[in-house]
């Protein structure tokens, strides 16, 4: 069917951006000076992408959260595109509606390239999600929100090497969708934010002014089974959360601020809007966990260390080594442990390529209410073991790693083959 085929060209390129008054900042982006326009894909679509590299160094194009066959289409370390070269990928997407993203993934310079700006949101749509009474008007009431932080040096430039920290580079200035001190004009009673933690190491502790409650409807890889109302939300590196904010108690001229801890991220400026009385559906998505064959052993994965000593199962990443295998279509429990201790130990956000998993438990207890949907990244706290239910539906080699990007580049990564 030709109507179901789409083609894109995504060019990784260097540019400059007016982020602060004065000198422009040297930045990288996808078809853009910094970050990139959101790509919108649909379940069932046949997608062709030409990947072009106009940067002075090699890069890769990783589809974080897409169920695509690895490792070339998936775009991890195995799929370099050299400067002034291009490559072509094709895939048919079979996946539920979700907020995913594209980012550079050349090992070991993923962190530096993402810091320069090689990240963009990728939204997956499907018929089920379209049919629900949710905000769907992209840019009006359905808003991408890429959360990052940067440090500006002399002449407003970033200096990744100067800021380097093996536990993850961070900066004191919040950058939202590649903008410093952004605001958003609210023209509808309800908006949907698609939040993405696109930072190298920072986790965001989100809340609104007046402690205005909001409702989470989706996580990384799908809608939640039901909406979860909250006033505080934490997301860690690479995680996504879709939330609905109802501004019904505000009037034109009012302002609502989204904070992380006490740092203001975005100001919502309320304008005239039509009253919206639609209720959120009580039920959003049926989740049918795949059955696990009782003879299938539990896979144990250990994330250990901090700074240069980080390791996965006691080892550093080696692209020539396949660390594990799992038959295609077979569901398996993965017990992922963070051996850091509570005092001062870091949360390691654990990510698996090419699949969406379910979170079964945290230290034997039920997962948080907002993690009952499909996910591809989970914050594993110090001293914690998180049980995941993982299945690969496509063949290939897939990386799994800590998504503090400097930990990943530091070797806290392994790969599994599904066959
Ligand atoms: Cu966000 Cu290995 O990826
Ligand atoms: Cu990924
Ligand atoms: Cu880590």
From TrEMBL:
Keywords: Metal-binding, Oxidoreductase. This is Multicopper oxidase. It comes from the Bacteria. It comes from Lacticaseibacillus saniviri JCM 17471 = DSM 24301. The keyword Cell membrane does not apply. Coiled coil: none annotated. Belongs to the multicopper oxidase family. One of its GO terms (molecular function) is oxidoreductase activity. The keyword Ribosomal protein does not apply. Residues 14-127, 293-419 form the Plastocyanin-like domain.
């Amino acid at each position: 069917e030709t109507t179901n085929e789409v083609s894109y060209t995504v060019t990784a390129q260097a540019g400059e951006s007016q982020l602060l008054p004065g000198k422009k900042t040297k930045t990288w982006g996808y078809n853009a000076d910094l970050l990139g326009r959101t790509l919108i894909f649909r379940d069932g679509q046949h997608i062709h992408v030409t990947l072009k590299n106009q940067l002075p160094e090699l890069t890769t194009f990783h589809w974080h959260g897409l169920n695509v066959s690895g490792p070339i289409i998936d775009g991890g370390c195995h799929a370099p595109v050299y400067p002034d070269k291009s490559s072509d990928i094709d895939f048919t997407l079979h996946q539920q509606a979700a907020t995913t993203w594209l980012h550079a993934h050349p090992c070991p310079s993923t962190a530096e390239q993402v810091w320069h700006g090689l990240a963009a949101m990728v939204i997956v749509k499907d018929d089920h999600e379209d049919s629900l009474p949710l905000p769907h008007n992209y840019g009006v009431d359905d808003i991408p929100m890429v959360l990052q932080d940067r440090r500006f040096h002399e002449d407003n430039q970033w200096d990744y090497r100067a800021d380097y920290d093996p536990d993850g580079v961070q900066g004191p200035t919040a950058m939202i969708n590649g903008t410093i001190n952004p605001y958003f004009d609210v023209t509808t009673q309800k908006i949907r934010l698609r939040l993405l933690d696109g930072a190298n190491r920072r986790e965001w502790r989100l809340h609104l002014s007046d402690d205005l409650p909001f409702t989470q409807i989706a996580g990384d890889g799908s809608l939640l089974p039901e909406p979860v109302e909250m006033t505080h939300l934490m997301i860690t590196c690479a995680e996504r959360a879709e939330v609905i904010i109802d501004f019904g108690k505000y009037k034109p001229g009012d302002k609502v601020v989204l904070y992380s801890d006490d740092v203001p991220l975005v100001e919502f400026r309320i304008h005239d809007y039509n009253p919206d009385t639609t209720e959120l559906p009580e039920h959003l998505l049926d989740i049918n966990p795949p059955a696990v064959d009782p003879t299938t052993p539990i896979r144990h994965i250990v994330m250990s260390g901090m700074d240069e000593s980080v390791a996965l199962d006691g080892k550093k990443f080696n692209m020539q080594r396949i660390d594990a295998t799992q038959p295609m279509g077979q569901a398996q429990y993965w017990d992922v442990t963070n051996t850091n201790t509570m005092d001062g130990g870091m949360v390691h956000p654990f990510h698996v390529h090419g699949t969406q998993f379910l979170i079964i438990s945290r230290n034997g207890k039920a997962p948080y209410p907002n993690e009952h949907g499909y996910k591809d990244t989970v914050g594993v706290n110090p001293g914690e073991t998180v049980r995941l239910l993982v299945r690969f539906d496509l063949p290939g080699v897939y990386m799994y790693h800590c998504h503090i990007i400097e930990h990943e580049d530091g070797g806290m990564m392994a790969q599994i083959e599904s066959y």
